[in-house]
Specification:
The structure holds 4 protein chains of 4 kinds. Chain A is mostly helical. Chain A has 7 helices and no strands. Chain C is mainly α. Among the domains of chain C are: 152 residues; 79 residues, no CATH class. In chain C, 65% of the residues lie in helices and 1% in strands. By secondary structure, chain D is mostly helical. Chain D starts with 10 loop residues before the first helix and ends with a helix. Chains in contact: A-C, A-D, B-C, B-D, C-D. The structure holds heme-A (HEA) (2 copies), dinuclear copper ion and copper (II) ion. The site of copper (II) ion has 4 residues of chain C, from helix 10. Copper (II) ion binds next to helix 10 of chain C.
Chain lengths: 223, 329, 703, 115
């Protein structure tokens, strides 16, 4: 049985040997460039690996938050500081932005006019920026209610986690602007496509992190 | 008149000669090296002075024996033999450059370590719980209760039941359990008396526990093993096990001669500095019968109040200390 | 800090007192003076070395070559060599510190010549440098150099990223070196536990130096991990299944995976400590709900995998060497592969064994203790399989093999003490004593460094085209081995005698004899290093007669030996196609080792890029600004860093083309040399006759 | 599901692929919306006890994660198998690290609270 297991794993490990060439959804680099394809495979796979490494960073920030939950040290806790309303709207914003980025991917993959692609990207960008604005407003409200990170271990844990996601979204927005720039300068060449592809992965990944933030931090804190 | 502290320290014994017959010569050499027989202090668990250290010492030799005889020795002999027999230019042995797998050898390579690890795991599983430092030792006599507080760079021992405290000396009756609660008023430290048993961390705003026992009267090295700054290497103390009578006498002595455990004293203790430096600060008030510093009038709630004050980052409440008044209560 | 104060203090916290040299002059305390003198001497050495290097470069007009051929290069081989050079530079400092510490130990009865604070800086920088700026760059360099060659690739998956990783590491190392000249380093050891490292107890810049140099190093390593993993996963030559890969490549893969997943906890924990220090957060403070225990927890979530990150590539080197120098295929290849993977996975399950004594309950300790001992199983399998590899082989006792054999003996001892530490009941006794110091030096020196040294001797001819001097190599090896034994066996006993680690002085006279033995051992180690330098010197002098241009001086088995020494920039004129393990041995046996391809094609390789050095420079300044709180510098360099990334995103055509003719000419030249070279027997491999062509000797002999 | 996207798709295959990709995002969006709405509503109106609320939130979060991976990141058994393996491996390490941390720290907290 063990050896059967080993065989399975070997098979998976050698999946690369399968003659069938897989292409990432959202990617269409022109079939003739097999070189570009190999490099694209590596690039996108590398980005996946990076995301997984980043996931561990978030995991540790979550674990820290969990261990510091009890450490409010007499300053305001979740119930005094969290408000469900804005969080719900922020969640919808991010979710919608994931969808609009999906539409952008489709526009890119199936060679719709570039204007469609740019349009969807712009919508995504706007949603991201509104999200960031709302999040900053949340923090401002928290500060006003005495929820400063210098106040307690709990608040340190919070501000070590949620703004980390916010920073990622900020980076995503800057990247998006850069991609728009690249489209303007170079058109949709394979490098730009690859960039957009990775950005899409990044964007969807941040959405997944947000699921855990609203579940663990906000819903968990208010349940 | 109670015996003086000086006379107590004469009692400190020299355990090496009276040890159970040690036949293994290797062990003997090790013991001489390890126990520090030339000093009066017991340094090592390999010359154990209490039940925990004894168990650890036995455990140590068992593990050493298993690992060296079953693992190291065969590898050593095997490597030398193989490397020589199959050296370049050898003619007596067979050369099979494509020999890459032989199932029985593979089973051996996995099987031996697996077996040994299973055995060791059983050992660890059973004993770790048993020797949890939090677990009180069973004894017919009640335990002595001491509260230990780590400062930069000295340990403060508070005897809540006796109302006394000391820096540099942990005295307790031999033959009965010693129960300690530990915390730190500063950075993370690790409290350790090797000849008696386990070490454990002491951390600010938290309380850890440690249970030890000395079989017979004696003097043992005590220390902090977690680096904590400039005076770290001098953060030593003497753990001294005494007969009950000597211990009672010691308590009386401290009560009679100690300086009041008040805000002045505590401020001095809390300053960064070694025990010796503390003495120079408190010297005018401290009688010079040995190199340690003794206090009277320590309140039973001091320890908890201190932990809470560190935890909440607030000053110690005034009720934690006796007002600076009486001497020897 | 507000804008106005920033403008008032354009240099942040920096002032004349920040220079230990000036501070020393201003003091009349003799103790401060001696330690200041030592410190200034070290600082002067740094400054003078930098000046000498600059002068030499100018004198020989080497700036252009340096910049275009090396610093901006995206060639994995050059990057690999630069990593190793970095490791060696840092090594010199770390060894000097080690010898100082041992000297202090020898006279440390009630005093010694070092101040407590100076000693603390020594062990902190020594530990930090050895782990992050010596061992890590060394193994990263070896991996960088060897892995693409072994898998028949032209380069790593992301060459520019590779250069950036290198420069991030260099920036971190430069930051540590800067702390010698400007300010002080941390005294919190290589793991810097708070609250000791918090602002309350350590307000100065020392801890900040430690934080930012580690952050740079860990970012560099994460990126390296990604790069290597993807390279191995995606760039293998056609036909090379995972199970055909040489063992060194396997260990590199596992190490890379561990870097990817183990570095993040370190990044998180140092950044959280930075937040505590800079913005008054309460992650790890004593009070206000902070939790210092979580620092230990997260640090070791990184720290334990880290030690296997160090050892696995060394294991890979030993595997290659046992096989090559026994003239025999590896025994139990699949077992070795599975053992490597198990070690990598298990290493994520044992971190708690570094704080058995923190007070958690017995069953938790037992679980992690047993998990730690489990690692002994795959490690044992490796040891046994290496023994079986020699069995029925023909073992040559060359320098790499001497290291490997010494490794087996000493590593087993270190492993055994590891198993003892993994036993919570025993760890309660020896934790934080020098017994532990002996354990980890036992793993780090005979385990990791002997592997690196063996690999250095093994692959040096491949990288530079000539062999190292064998005699000085042996002298050095024996000095290492016996020096190490002298320096660290005594520490096991001292640890059992209750001597805590990191003690600048002690009160027990019974420690003295062993401390002296340890010092003598350390001197022997220093001699070993000297011998190594002499070896390099002698070898360079006699390089002409030791040339091995054909590229296969040791009768090698894997693909890196199938190309010239040094290899061309593109590694292989034609990407080889593989259908077995030990691909090059198979080729030689079939007599197709040195064949011309039917056609040559243009080869695309990445152009040089200034990205790496620019990144290194800005991130160094960024970190420096953070340490000294020079906010304008932080903002400026931060913007430049981001800007560089953005600009790079807009670049296209980053490849350059090597025309088929060039490739053809170079390749024919090499084939010509190979065909005209005399195939030599192994008994002659250390003679001038060895031009890098091996005679076929792998024929079964029996009596 | 249908075959993986191949290198040179026929025109009608292109159309079905496109439709399928589009539907993937639509499905993902719809499911995610539901999986978000439900826990928010439950918490907003404190529908059950804290204990069961927490469990429901956790389960729905897991499901939603799978939904995102499946429909937005296109991870699946029939697609890029190596990505799936990578994600599973990473998840297992993530769980070990996070669960281990919480286990250890909770135990320590319990044993160290001042009496
Ligand atoms: C890889 C890790 C590594 C290595 C190799 C070493 C090597 C040495 N170390 Fe180190 N040490 C640490 C990691 C390492 N150390 C760490 C992590 C600490 C803990 C710090 C802390 O407390 O926080 C420590 C602490 C430490 C202490 C403090 C102990 C204490 O706490 O009291 C001492 C004291 O003597 C010491 C001594 C030495 C000595 C004498 C060597 C010698 O063996 C030196 C050995 C020689 C070499 C290392 C050279 C190897 C040479 C090559 C590889 C050359 C290659 C050359 C060419 C290619 C040309 N070490
Ligand atoms: C390269 C580095 C390296 C390696 C490979 C190892 C390998 C091991 N280490 Fe070590 N370790 C360190 C570097 C390393 N360590 C460092 C740097 C520290 C301290 C950091 C600090 O505090 O500063 C440390 C600390 C450390 C501790 C913490 C102690 C303490 O703080 O109190 C423990 C406890 O379990 C431990 C255990 C082990 C074990 C079980 C192995 C095992 O992997 C060993 C396995 C090998 C063998 C067992 C030998 C060969 C096997 C056989 C021949 C087969 C048969 C064997 C059996 C069946 C057992 N190590
Ligand atoms: Cu230590 Cu809680
Ligand atoms: Cu470990």
């Amino acid at each position: 049985m063990i050896s059967e297991l080993f065989k399975r794993v070997e098979f998976y490990l050698d999946a690369r040997q399968n003659k069938e060439i897989f292409i990432y959804p959202g990617l269409n680099l022109g079939a003739e460039h097999s070189n570009v394809h190999t490099q694209a495979e590596a690039t996108v796979f590398g980005f996946w690996v990076f995301l997984m490494s980043d996931a561990i960073i978030f995991g540790m920030a979550f674990a820290t938050y969990a261990t510091l939950l009890q450490g409010t040290a007499g300053s305001p806790g979740p119930r005094e500081l969290y408000h469900l309303g804005p969080i719900f709207i922020e969640t919808l914003l991010l979710l919608t932005s994931s969808f609009t980025f999906g539409m952008a991917s489709i526009a890119m993959k199936y060679k719709h006019p570039t204007s469609h692609l740019v349009g969807w990207l712009l919508v995504t960008l706007v949603l991201g920026v509104i999200f960031l604005g709302m999040e900053l407003d949340d923090f401002r409200t928290m500060f006003a209610a005495g929820g400063l990170p210098t106040q307690s271990g709990f608040l340190s844990g919070f501000f070590g986690l949620v703004p980390l996601h916010g920073l990622h979204v900020t980076a995503g927005c800057i990247w998006l602007v850069c991609m728009l720039g690249q489209i303007a300068v170079h058109g949709l060449d394979s490098e730009t496509k690859l960039g957009l592809l990775r950005l899409a992965l990044f964007w969807h990944f941040l959405d997944i992190v947000w699921i855990f933030i609203f579940s663990v931090v906000y819903l968990g804190g208010l349940a | 008149m109670p015996k003086s502290i000086m006379s107590v320290s004469v009692l400190q014994m020299h355990g090496c000669g009276s040890q159970q017959a040690v036949t293994l010569s290797v062990q003997c050499v090790a013991l001489v090296l390890l126990s520090g027989c030339n000093s009066t202090e017991h340094l090592s668990f390999l010359n154990p002075q209490g039940p925990i250290a004894t168990a650890q010492s036995e455990h140590f030799w068992l593990v050493v024996a298993i690992l060296f005889i079953l693992i190291a020795l065969p590898v050593f002999i095997g490597t030398v033999w193989i490397a020589w027999r199959y050296r370049y230019g050898a003619t007596k042995s067979k050369y099979v450059p494509r020999w890459k797998i032989f199932k029985p050898l593979e089973y051996f390579s996995w099987g031996i370590p697996i077996t040994i690890v299973i055995f060791l795991s059983i050992l660890v599983w059973e004993d770790t719980e048993r020797f949890d430092p939090y677990r009180p030792l069973t004894s017919s006599t009640p335990a002595t209760h001491v509260q230990v507080i780590g400062y930069d760079w000295k340990w403060l021992f508070v005897y809540p039941e006796q109302g006394i405290a000391s820096v540099g000396m942990l005295a307790f009756p031999a033959g009965q359990p010693l129960t300690m609660e530990l915390t730190s008023a500063t950075v993370m430290q690790s409290f350790f008396i090797p000849a008696l048993g386990s070490q454990i961390y002491a951390m600010g705003g938290m309380v850890t526990q440690l249970n030890l026992q000395a079989d017979r009267p004696g003097r043992f090295l005590g220390e902090n093993t977690m680096y904590s700054g400039d005076g770290f290497h001098q953060q030593k103390f003497a753990a001294v096990a005494m007969t009950q009578a000597d211990f009672d006498a010691w308590v009386q002595q401290v009560r009679a001669t100690g300086i009041p455990f008040d805000a002045t004293a505590l401020n001095a203790i809390a300053m960064q500095g070694t025990k010796a430096q503390l003495r120079t600060v408190l010297a005018p008030a401290a009688p010079a019968f040995d190199s340690n510093i003794y206090f009277t009038g320590a309140k039973a709630n001091f320890f908890t109040d201190l932990v809470m004050s560190v935890m909440d980052d607030k000053p110690l409440p005034s009720t934690a200390l006796a007002p600076a008044i009486t001497k020897g209560q | 800090m507000s804008w106005s104060t920033t403008l008032n203090h354009p240099l942040g916290l920096l002032d004349a007192d920040s220079f230990p040299f000036l501070a020393m002059l201003g003091s009349d305390d003799s103790d401060i003076f001696i330690n200041g003198l030592l410190g200034s001497f070290a600082a002067a050495l740094v400054v003078i070395s930098v000046m000498v290097v600059v002068a030499l470069l100018t004198r020989y007009r080497a700036w252009r070559t340096l910049w275009f051929d090396w610093l901006t290069s995206a060639d994995h081989k050059k990057i690999g060599i630069m990593y190793v050079v970095l490791a060696l530079v840092m090594l010199v400092r770390a060894i000097a510190e080690a010898v100082l510490m041992r000297a202090q130990g020898a006279v440390g009865l009630d005093g010694g010549f070092l101040s407590s604070d100076h000693f603390a800086q020594l062990f902190s920088t020594h530990g930090t440098i050895m782990i992050f700026f010596m061992a890590m760059p060394f193994l990263t360099g070896l991996i960088n150099y060897v892995v693409p060659l072994q898998i028949g690739a032209r380069d790593v998956a992301f060459p520019i990223l590779n250069s950036i990783s290198l420069w991030l590491t260099v920036a971190g190392a430069a930051l540590v070196m800067t702390s010698l000249v400007v300010g002080v380093f941390s005294t919190g050891g290589w793991f810097g536990y708070p609250p000791y490292t918090g602002t309350l107890y350590n307000p100065g810049v020392g801890v900040d130096y430690w934080i930012w140099s580690l952050t740079l190093a860990s970012l560099g390593s994460t990126l390296t991990g990604i790069n290597i993993a993807v390279t191995i996963y995606k760039k293998r030559a056609p036909g090379m299944k995972l199970y055909y890969m040489p063992l060194f490549t396997w260990t590199a893969l596992c190490t890379a995976i561990m870097m990817i997943f183990a570095m993040p906890p370190l990044t998180v924990v140092t950044l959280q400590l930075a937040l505590d220090r800079y913005l008054d957060f309460h992650f790890f403070t004593n009070g206000l709900g902070g939790n210092q225990m979580n620092f230990l927890n997260m640090f070791w979530l990184f720290g334990h995998p880290e030690v296997y990150i160090l050892i696995l590539p060394a294991f890979g080197v030993y595997s290659e060497i046992f096989s090559t120098f026994s003239g025999k295929v590896l025994f139990g290849y699949k077992s070795l592969v599975w053992a490597t993977m198990s070690i990598a996975f298990l290493s994520f399950l044992v971190w708690l064994h570094h704080f058995f004594t923190m007070g958690q309950s017995g069953h938790i300790n037992a679980v992690f203790g047993i998990a730690s001992m489990l690692i002994g199983i795959p490690t044992g399998v490796k040891i046994y399989d290496w023994m079986w590899t020699m069995l029925r082989g023909r073992v040559r006792f060359s320098v790499p093999m001497i290291y490997s054999l010494a490794f087996i003996f000493l590593f087993v001892i270190g492993g055994i003490t590891g198993i003892m530490l993994a036993n919570p009941i025993l760890d309660y006794q020896v934790h934080n004593t020098v017994f532990l110091v002996a354990h980890f030096h036992n793993m780090a020196v005979p385990g990791v460094l002997f592997g690196m040294l063996a690999g250095y001797t093994f692959w040096f001819p491949k990288a530079f085209g000539f062999r190292l001097d064998e005699r000085w190599g042996r002298i050095s090896a024996y000095c290492w081995i016996f020096g190490w034994m002298g320096a660290f066996f005594p520490l096991y006993i001292l640890g059992l005698m209750g001597l805590p680690r990191r003690s600048v002085a002690y009160e027990q006279a019974s420690y003295v004899p062993l401390e002296i033995v340890a010092f003598v051992g350390a001197l022997l180690v220093a001699a070993a290093l000297m011998a190594l330098v002499i070896q390099l010197w002698v070898s360079i002098k006699h390089r002409e007669e030791n040339r091995v241009f054909v590229g296969d001086p040791w009768d090698g088995r894997s693909l890196e030996w199938a190309t010239s020494a040094p290899p061309p920039e593109y590694n292989f004129p034609v990407v080889p196609s593989i259908n077995d393990r030990d691909a090059f041995t198979a080729a030689k046996e079939f007599g197709v080792g040195y064949q011309e391809p039917d056609t040559y094609v243009n080869i695309e390789i990445p152009q040089n890029s200034a990205m790496g050095p620019v990144f290194g420079g800005t991130s160094f300044l960024l970190a420096f600004g953070l340490v000294w709180q020079i906010w304008w510098l932080v903002i400026l360099t931060g913007l430049v860093t981001i800007g560089t990334l953005v600009v790079r995103g807009f670049q296209r055509d980053t490849l350059k083309i090597i025309p088929a003719e060039t490739v053809c000419r170079a390749h024919r030249h090499w084939i010509q040399a190979a065909r005209s070279a005399q195939p030599i027997k192994r008994s002659q491999e250390h003679t001038a006759a060895n031009k890098g062509r091996a005679a076929l000797e792998t024929v079964e002999v029996s009596t | 599901m249908s075959k993986p996207v191949t290198r040179i798709p026929a025109t009608n295959a292109l159309m079905t692929n496109k439709r399928r990709d589009f539907m993937s995002y639509v499905w993902g969006f719809g499911l995610a919306l539901i999986l978000t709405l439900v826990p928010f509503a439950l918490v907003q109106w404190q529908a059950t006890t804290r204990g069961s609320l927490l469990i429901i939130i956790a389960v729905l979060a897991m499901v939603q994660t799978v939904v995102h991976f499946r429909f937005f990141l296109h991870l699946g058994r029939k697609r890029k198998r190596e990505d799936l393996l990578l994600v599973l491996f990473s998840t297992s390490l993530l769980i070990i690290m996070v669960a281990g941390t919480i286990w250890i720290m909770a135990n320590l907290a319990e044993r160290m609270t001042p009496i």
